[in-house]
ErfK/YbiS/YcfS/YnhG family protein
Amino acid sequence: MTRLTAPRRLLTPLLTAATLLTLAAPAHAISLLDRGPIADFLTVFRQQGVPRQTIGWNSPYKPGTVVISTSQRRLYYILPNQEAVQYGVGVGREGFSWSGTKTVTMKKEWPAWRPPEQMIKRRPDLPRYMAGGNDNPLGARALYLGSSLYRIHGSNEPETIGAAVSSGCIRMTNRDVIDLYDRVKVGTKVVVLP
């Protein structure tokens, strides 16, 4: 059995069972697959467009700092010994990008989403509230940045990672935002560079 075949053989029955459960289960059972530990587990197997990696990075920032390069569309979590974990991110589209320093003031797993008034004015078709889950634009985790409207969050559109398409938030794959969420503490400094 090859290295790639073994995980697929193990994963196929699990995904088949998940699909059957989705088709046959009442609505409350479907939420088990949509958010929580089972959804977190299944997220690990979803495709990742820009791979996460640990890199050498000589940085003036202290370990534990989050640095986002808007132009590179990368997020760096600074580690000791001149290293960083590098993640691909989606950033604000033209007219919505920003730079500055913020602090993580709150963390949420499978957060609910309420589009801000500014977004509703641009997109009146948006729902006023969306419960947390796989269909929610905030994805699996959200890190709230100060009193701003911006967040670092997962995404239900992983194909947008590496692009400038958001209304200013920093998007990550659900897999990557779960990893970052586990590393970052409330009070973490976040530096957003142009």
Notes: The radius of gyration is 18 Å. Residues 5-34 form one domain. The chain has two domains: 5-34, 53-193.
